[in-house]
Hints:
The structure is a homodimer. Chain A is mainly α. Chain A is 68% helix and 0% strand. In chain A, helix 2 crosses helix 3 (44-51), helix 9 (130-153) packs across helix 10 (170-187) and helix 10 (170-187) runs antiparallel to helix 11 (196-217). The longest helix of chain A is centred in the middle third of the chain and has 24 residues, at 130-153. In chain A, 29% of the residues are buried. The structure holds a DNA duplex.
Amino acid sequence: xxxxxxxAVSAKPSTKRRAPEVRKQEVLTExxxxxxxxxxxxxxxxxxxxIGITQPLxxxxxxSKDDLVNEVYRAVYLDRWQDSWEVNLRDxxxxxxxxxxxxxxxxxxVVFERNWLRIYFFAGLKGLxxxxxxxxxxxxxxxxxxxxxxxxxxxxxxxxxxxxxxKANDLVWQMHGxxxxxxxxxxxxxxxxxxxxxxxxxAVKTYLVAAKAAxxxxxxx
Amino acid sequence: xxxxxxxAVSAKPSTKRRAPEVRKQEVLTExxxxxxxxxxxxxxxxxxxxIGITQPLxxxxxxSKDDLVNEVYRAVYLDRWQDSWEVNLRDxxxxxxxxxxxxxxxxxxVVFERNWLRIYFFAGLKGLxxxxxxxxxxxxxxxxxxxxxxxxxxxxxxxxxxxxxxKANDLVWQMHGxxxxxxxxxxxxxxxxxxxxxxxxxAVKTYLVAAKAAxxxxxxx
DNA sequence: GTATCTATTTATCAAATGATAAAGAAATTT
DNA sequence: AAATTTCTTTATCATTTGATAAATAGATAC
Lengths: 221, 221
């Protein structure tokens, strides 16, 4: 009945024992990749296999799959926000165009990463409030400051501006949307003909021209 | 053992017998709504309940769930393409601005419908080629013609244009992306502060200004 | 070296999934 | 009205899912 040699041959040379914090971090790191690939309906067994552990081991580190998913969110969205974005946008030692180019270069470097964007859309489709919350932060911490800095760069005060037919931030949203759309095409649709840098340059340039025109139009501040 | 009255009371007054074509269409129509809500991982039992039939009945009309899903795609994407888009964009009896406004009004009316956009993203995340195929059609049938018409409107020939730092269609992609992004915010993220019409007007206006500048810049045709 | 602790696995569960076969019921044909 | 066709349901299956309990095995303490 006993097969002493078989167990010695076939068995697992792989999984070593880890310190709890190490293992938990390892699980979380792999979970990000896994859920980005499979969506949140991806099975815990598939994830376990990818890590090289057995499926019930999750439940020592996370009470339920939902808890794991929530930690994935936190890791992806909160931890990857860079405060330097907000700081650098306000640094008026550099011209506004340079600041915008630099910001979008850094921002898209984070946001147009496959995991980030895919998880973002999985969350949006699932009706979670992650996206709305994130967008609110983007608007208040990034887009509104961008408009304020743009106004300042052209010697205007944001409050005194009377936009012709659109709300003040619409131009910023337009630039942001144009850039973001290229990331979607690249990462979600798998279109590899997209040139992000070119898109950023064009969007920023177009934005500044349009903003200047809008700000100079009502020249009676 | 027999409960004659119970069956008469509780039983199903709902499901009537239908002609095959009618039922198949009914299933397809509801499947679009259902998969747009739940994603393609939504269960066949949930869909059956929503229609008011039993789950095995699907397999009389569709060999497998995958086949049903494929018919959903076809119905949503192929059947909703409007040839008038291509025609009207080329109708130079109207100024280019009016044509663009009219086109995006009609286009977003179709594409920014909840079902359409959600299924589009579910497909994209699942790695299906629907999106890439659709985008190729958008580019060849809509965006490239838009650029050609724009050039014509400013008295240029598309081939003779030497764009400064970007490819010829980048400006069109930028406009398209800015508009599309608003649909995403509205339908995927559930942001109801989005004003699509305003976004269209701004995007078209900005595009035409930028295109004019780009076309007039290299004035040596 | 034995005992204790804890990280990991094996075995297992209940629920849900896509799918099939056979039974039932509403039409239609004759 | 009986027979036949076909639309629909009931019963059921094999897999897969998230999750738990008990057994194993690698550490550390004594």
